[in-house]
Known about the structure:
Helices cover about 50% and strands about 20% of the residues. It is α/β, with parallel strands linked by helices.
Amino acid sequence: MTRRPWLIRCFHRNAIRILFKPRSQQHKCSSSNDCSVQRGPKSKFAICILQFAICNCFLIFARPAQAATPEETLRAYGLQRVEKTWLVSAEVELHDRLEELGKLERRLQESKRECDAQITAIEQLRAQLKTAEVTKARLTKVLKTAPAGQLRTLLEKDRKEQTELAAKLREGLPPEDTLGGLAPLKGLLAEQCALRAEFSLGVLEASRLDAGLAKQYAELAAKNEVQDALAELAGHSLGPAKRLAADQKTLQKYRAAAFTATAPIYREGKRVRVSLILNEELPATLTWHEEHEATVLPYSLAQNLGLMNKLPSKQEQLAIPKEKLTLHGWFITLDKIRLGQAVAEKTPVFVMSPEHEAQGGRLGYELQKELLLTLEPERLQVKCGARQVSSEVKNK
């Protein structure tokens, strides 16, 4: 039998002594004025109750803590139970994230189909226009040597029809330098770029979750407390779950869908707009520029990337002669810039000072060459190189 703590025993003993002390042993005074404390039956009872209450408080809080159950031990290590398998939170989050990415991929593919249908329709109009112009030119050549008569009349009629058809087709086609800059195609392309960026960032986050799973399970498997807790639970085991192999295969499929050999573009006026991912965490839409080397970022983008502490104390200037423009700002190095399947590492960029924010970000031709980018405006896309450009490659 477990003995009560010494202090509690003293409180109990003292309370009983006060309550049951014989009258002959009680304190006596020669007069009522000689003693400052007079204890009657009520005061003795109150003191006794107070001491018993204090004792019970000690008993409550001094009880030894109960041993944790096996489930509590496993949850304390961040494990979550799925049927009879205990999984790290990253694996559960990975599974949930892939389900969300599945819905996002379906939206992305639907948006891509809509854009492709519109672009294909424009290409078909172009092909018909080209055919009509070639036919018209051929008929014009034949008419130069055709004799007068019924045959010439028919040839002239055919040439007129081809001329009218070409004019009608030309009216239905947007000018090449505005393709992708007019509704409804511009809105569809901008939506596709936004969905693609969201999907790519989700895939990158899922990849980070997957990359740490093996290490987490190895560390947990080496802990005796985890193994002892699992041994007490019949039939239970430490993850990963059987579904992880299927999840990893799904993740690879999503990576292939996110990081492709082409990426969509659209126009704002005469400017070609391209969407990239900076430092694997932030989407950015930049204007395609071939007039200058440097890639230029707005100050607000650098703020969102948390790069303020990397900005040098002294500003520099970046001249753009063709536009007769001089920008003030700072040269810094970004860890990664991604466009489709192409990734550039340790890339220098120019961050504009806040007063140049309205100029917008620019994708310079130095980065275009490094990422092996080829603009295909007629298809409203940019082809991305298959290689990853690192600082080592640049230095050679």
